[in-house]
Write a structure and sequence with these properties.
423 residues, four-stranded antiparallel β-sheet, 13 helices, Glycosyltransferase, alpha+beta, globular, 10 strands
């Protein structure tokens, strides 16, 4: 079943998420299976101060994350296929590397169009913008890290050049950059400092430059980048004693994947990374998934037992439901998300590879989610059960099919194939 579904997902993704200038869009309309138009975005307010080119923003907001994770999935896929098409419709590794090469070229061209070496802004409308975030870079680093293990020499050199200038850029700005209308954001804060640490160690591994090893030590000394504490982000809302309301893990998966990579990148501390990976899997990631394979955006967690339950259906925009400044995460709702589930599946496979004692549980969860996410309607960012959980000026959150849902599904599937977890 998963093999057949993987072919359907690959076909749909390649047909509908191709953007301009060789890039991938990260969101398409559920109505048209095409990128959003300005007319469809009318009245939308993400709370970030953006009022112009809303479609260009919404379609390409997570392009770099989508492309990084897709390249990662292709790096896994190339390990389990032959070098040429066998005549049965299955793409061979030569065709896969050709596709990867085109994506790397598109990234290189967009890098040149930015105003500063290493500055890779979000490509709104397939053009450089003023916005960036470290999670976009992180997915590219992680994708290139997997790619570097299988890529031919010329391609390795090209991704090494990109990784080097990106790493230098973040060192130069000391992980500080403005974020929409929130002012300057420090990205090496907890618990995400470990993502910065992993990026630097990936840079050291791929480029061979010692300065990135030195930077990793500086990150640990100044910013405790090796700590990765659980339950320490704004996605945990304090409630009555013993309980918190949690919003679905998004960036948190990058923390778990960073810990997964550190097992290889910093093997002297392997047992420490494995313990932290388990803590993140149990207390941050493997929560909120319902019996339909979709994950609740918000759910109530009893901290002493780590047991969770859905929140009640909410009245849109009630002030008592407010808990953060960020509009997207600022109120409790009973939406579900296929994107969050796909991320859980991808993390589950990584956990299964490294943690023998919970391998069966993690593989079973990944397989269940992969089988459940079997149509575009389940790959949405938000799934509103009664069309009453999202504010009128944010209805588009529930109208978009997310590219990250597909690429994380493919990462989970192909990574699992390399490990022999399913067909």
């Amino acid at each position: 079943m998963l093999k057949k579904l993987s072919k359907e997902h690959i076909s749909f993704f390649r047909e509908h998420f191709a953007g301009d200038k060789g890039l991938l869009v990260s969101m398409i309309s559920e109505k048209t299976y095409e990128p959003f138009t300005e007319a469809e975005m009318r009245g939308f307010d993400l709370g970030e101060g953006i009022t112009d080119n809303l479609a260009g923003m919404w379609n390409y907001e997570d392009t770099w994350m989508t492309m990084g994770a897709y390249i990662k999935s292709l790096a896994y896929q190339v390990q389990v296929v032959s070098s040429v098409d066998a005549g049965d419709g299955k793409r061979g590794s030569d065709a896969i590397f050709e596709e990867i090469d085109q994506f790397v070229e598109a990234i290189e061209k967009m890098q040149v169009r930015n105003s500063r070496s290493g500055l890779l802004t979000k490509p709104y409308g397939a053009k450089p913008s003023k916005e960036l975030s470290i999670d976009q870079y992180a997915e590219l680093f992680l994708g290139f890290y997997e790619l570097s293990k299988v890529a031919p020499l010329n391609l390795k050199k090209r991704i090494s050049n990109l990784i080097e200038i990106w790493a230098d850029f973040w060192i130069e700005i000391d992980y500080r950059w403005h974020y929409f209308n929130s002012g300057v954001v420090f990205w090496a804060c907890q618990p995400h400092a470990v993502v910065c640490l992993t990026m630097m160690l990936i840079a050291a591994r791929i480029t061979g430059e010692l300065r990135f090893q030195e930077e990793s030590r500086r990150l640990c000394k100044l910013y405790q980048a090796d700590k990765a504490p659980i339950r320490s982000t704004m996605t945990w809302k304090s409630e009555h004693e013993g309980y918190r309301i949690r919003s679905a893990a998004l960036f948190q998966h990058l923390v778990a994947e960073s810990l997964y990579c550190l097992v290889d990148l910093w093997p002297e501390r392997k047992e420490e990374w494995l313990d932290k990976l388990y803590q993140w899997w149990k207390y941050e990631i493997n929560l909120g998934t319902d019996t339909d394979g979709l994950t609740y955006w918000c759910f109530r967690v009893h901290l002493p037992t780590n047991l969770w339950q859905p929140v009640e259906k909410q009245k849109v925009g009630c002030s008592q439901n407010q808990w953060a400044d960020h509009a997207q995460f600022s109120y409790v709702n009973k939406c579900k998300s296929g994107s969050a589930s796909a991320h859980i599946a991808a993390t589950a496979v990584r956990v299964a590879e490294h943690l023998n004692y919970c391998r069966k549980e993690a593989v079973d969860i990944a397989a269940f989610i992969l089988q459940s996410l079997d149509e575009p309607a389940k790959m949405k960012f938000y799934i509103d059960p009664d069309d009453m959980q999202l504010r009128d000026n944010q209805k588009q959150l529930g109208q978009g099919i997310q590219g990250k849902s597909y690429v994380q599904w493919l990462c989970a599937y192909w990574h699992g194939c390399t490990l022999g977890y399913w067909d």
